[in-house]
Amino acid sequence: MLTNIWDTVLYKPLLNALAFLVSIIPGGDVGIAVIILTILVKAILFPFSQKSIESQIKMNLLAPELKKIKEGGASKEEQARQTFDLYKQHKTNPFSGCLLVLVQIPIIFALYYVFLKGLNLENGLLYSFIKAPEYINTVFLGILDLSTHSLVLALLAGVSQYFQAILMPKPAVSESKSNSFQDNLTQSMQTQMKYVFPFIVAFIAYRVSGAVALYWITSNIFAIGQQMYANKKRKVALEIIK
Hints:
Blueprint: H1 2-24, H2 30-61, H3 63-70, H4 76-89, H5 96-117, E1 139-140, E2 144-145, H6 151-167, H7 181-195, H8 197-208, H9 210-241
Antiparallel strand pairs: 1-2
């Protein structure tokens, strides 16, 4: 049941889109098709991911007010009520960012899976109106073979992941000297995303294929541009508050 839903709703549409792009791109360059399909999917998901980023930014802007409520000496029930009123006043849902990320995960994973499996045109996976590519060229721009390991693309995937992590909105943490367990966990996760995860991405990208590495690079570059746009909006919001 779940396999049928996965194939019908996610895998087959993305695979057919990739096959269509390869069939219309001069020379059947799979690399160019990977870039175009990744950008198209990221563009479709842009409203969701943008709202998720903006939700995190709003939470950071509300951090000083949340700190005042926490240090106000009120009971736990009163703190919860004041916090709820603050979220309601600023039309902010602390869980909306997580929910929007969860919406994107199956689509992003399906796109990754398409590039992982490659152009698998067997078992009747193509729609009747999609013509199978006559020529499939896995050598991206005549330089890099995407069907095998690519150290260059893997390193670029790791580097782009690092820069994306730098631009991510920083989670709000307490300014007190004795940080809570939650603050320590948040800082630890942030450090791992910045310094550890890029190595994991580079390792996986190298071990799998150049196509997956190229997907990761394209996705990260798109995310970097999106986060730069969101950070500009955050600066404007801070200036208005001041």
